[in-house]
Amino acid sequence: MRPGQGLAARGWVWLALSACLTLAGCGGGYGAYGQATAMTCVPYARQVSGMPLQGDAWQWWRAARGRYAEASAPAPGSVLVFRRTGRLPSGHLAVVSAIVSPRQVIVDQANWVPYRITKSQPVMDVSAGNDWTAVRVWWPPSHNWGVTVYPTYGFIQPRPAGVQQGAPIAQMTPSGLRVGS
């Protein structure tokens, strides 16, 4: 070996190892990183849920009152509203995409991982009353549950207030538009 060749060989080893580790992080699984974005959770939740609510994330709970149904249990399409805390000064919103069990859901959200849209990310109910008032969220960078317990208000359902889930279409239609009622 000539002088300096050992360093070049080690450089290729590091390059190959880095490539393998990078590709290992590209696999599927929970909470896969999405595209880079400057979008925050509020416009993302508004766009995905179709609920035209305004304000910071924590303000959605009050803004939804009387317009949308509130619930302590998730449903696909519902928006989980995080309370504001020292870690989440504006609160946070996540849109439920699937129910795994009574205490675990899958959400899509923006900016949980800074400047990223994360899809298929698990959220676990850790509340004492099984009412989703305290949750832990999957943290994609570590491929593990986050250690912080976040307080939440609950779920805003994507249906008008006063309409039961699974209600007939006639019940959801304003009475002035119904024929024969």
TrEMBL record:
Organism from which the protein derives: Acidisoma cellulosilyticum
Residue intervals passing through the bilayer: 12-33
Protein keywords: Membrane, Transmembrane, Transmembrane helix
Annotated Pfam families: CHAP
Entry annotated with the keyword Oxidoreductase: no
Residues annotated as domain Peptidase C51: 16-136
Record's protein name: CHAP domain-containing protein
Lineage: Bacteria, Pseudomonadati, Pseudomonadota, Alphaproteobacteria, Acetobacterales
